[in-house]
Design a protein that fits this description.
The chain has 356 residues and is an alpha/beta fold. Helices cover 27% and strands 30% of the residues. The protein has three domains: 71 residues, Alpha-Beta Plaits, CATH 3.30.70; 81 residues, 2-Layer Sandwich (GMP Synthetase, Chain A, domain 3); 174 residues, Rossmann fold (3-Layer(aba) Sandwich), CATH 3.40.50.150. Bound molecules: S-adenosylmethionine (SAM).
């Protein structure tokens, strides 16, 4: 597309310094492409220079002319949320824009700071415009809570829904984010743990959710057997759908209910590996995890929240003490890492322990 614009004509060799001077007084029309011929450069400008602007220019550049010409429009490149909202939100509030958003399938989730609450629709629309693959924008309306570890959302923009299909490391997850727990921020951890599994191991996923640990393990290890427990009936329904979606019906068995009685009644002493991603209550389940592990030993993937980033050692010691109360011991600390900050001064830590 072309557009007529007033411009500065200057010899090509003076081009760079002229652009610099025009930039300083904000005169360049950045929506149009500068054009050139053999000797001359034509720089499109926003408006007829004022007397003062003209005087400034004359001091810095010589032998230029102001005329009108036709220019090619630049492709509009919107880079950031801030740029997109610059004219829609007061400048002093732009610094409060959220720096990150979670994307689950085609849903974007943001946390809107109190100062920006009145602009939530504008913010949602800008996110839709910026991310062409996003169809729905929601904002967090509550913390994650309850036994099922779910939160509520406010609808901001796009299609009004909370269900989607999410892709992670080659596995597909159908889910409703208002009914089940899922965090895309754990994708690397899901992948780390599932890549450790080999051959015909038996796995117990104590708090499986919709299956982001269990499903890749089952998919990548057809000889392995995975028992996946969750107390949230909705999570189990989605897990069952995801088992079919990823064709892992042969080696993944879902169990709905409280992990404690289920382990006691059905899954005692069978596991080479237990995954226990319920950081807020993990301590209460150490003895049941030990009960699931084979008599000859196995590995526990344990998650906990810590407040002090230097207290990883303390959490390890407490885990060992709990294990000893069950009559077993921690053979080896295999791994410990802060995997994310979940709130100010709250870190989720991943531990791998070999127990005997
Ligand atoms: N492992 C999944 C993941 O990484 O996305 C889900 C983790 S989520 C933090 C914890 C899950 O544990 C929730 O789905 C919740 O319903 C389930 N849960 C809570 N208490 C439970 C219990 N006593 N027995 C079994 N599952 C439980």
């Amino acid at each position: 597309m072309c557009e007529k614009s007033i411009c500065i004509q200057i010899n090509r060799e003076k081009g760079e310094s002229t652009i610099r001077s025009l930039n300083k007084i904000g005169l360049i029309n950045k929506k149009l492409k500068i054009k050139k011929n053999q000797n001359q450069l034509y720089i499109p400008i926003n408006h007829q220079p004022t007397f003062l602007e003209l005087e400034t220019l004359k001091k810095q550049i010589s032998n230029f002319q102001i005329l009108t010409s036709t220019f090619i429009q630049k492709k509009q490149q919107i880079k950031t949320l801030e740029e997109l909202l610059a004219e829609k939100i007061p400048k002093y509030l732009l610094k409060n824009l959220p720096h990150s958003l979670d994307i689950i399938g085609d849903i974007a989730i943001i946390e809107i700071p109190a100062e920006l609450k009145t602009y939530n629709q504008v913010l949602g629309a800008a996110i839709l415009e910026l991310h062409k693959n996003i169809k729905t924008v929601l904002s967090k309306a509550s913390p994650i809570k309850g036994d099922y570890r779910v939160r509520s959302f406010d609808f901001l923009c796009g299609e009004n829904r909370t269900y989607t299909t999410h892709l992670e490391y080659g596995c597909k997850y159908f889910l409703d984010i208002s009914k089940v727990y899922f965090s895309p921020r754990l994708s690397q951890e899901h992948n780390r743990v599932s890549s450790l599994v080999k051959g015909n191991e038996v796995i117990v996923d104590l708090f499986a959710g919709i299956g982001p640990f269990s499903i890749p393990i089952a998919k990548n290890n057809p000889e392995a057997r995975i028992f996946s427990i969750d107390i949230n009936p909705e999570a189990i329904e989605f897990l069952k759908k995801n088992i079919r979606l990823n064709r892992v019906d042969n080696n993944l068995v879902p169990f709905e209910g409280d992990a404690r009685p289920l382990i006691k009644e059905h899954l005692t002493g069978i596991a080479d590996r237990v995954i226990m991603n319920l950081p807020e209550k993990a301590k209460e389940f150490i003895s049941i995890a030990c009960r699931a592990i084979k008599p000859e030993g196995g590995i526990i993937h344990y998650y906990e929240f810590i407040q002090d980033p230097d207290s990883i050692g303390e959490a390890q010691d407490q885990f060992s003490q709990q294990v000893e109360k069950t009559g077993r011991i921690v053979d080896k600390f295999l791994f410990a890492k802060k995997i994310r900050e979940t709130a100010p001064y709250q870190y989720q830590v991943a531990f791998d322990f070999k127990i005997h």
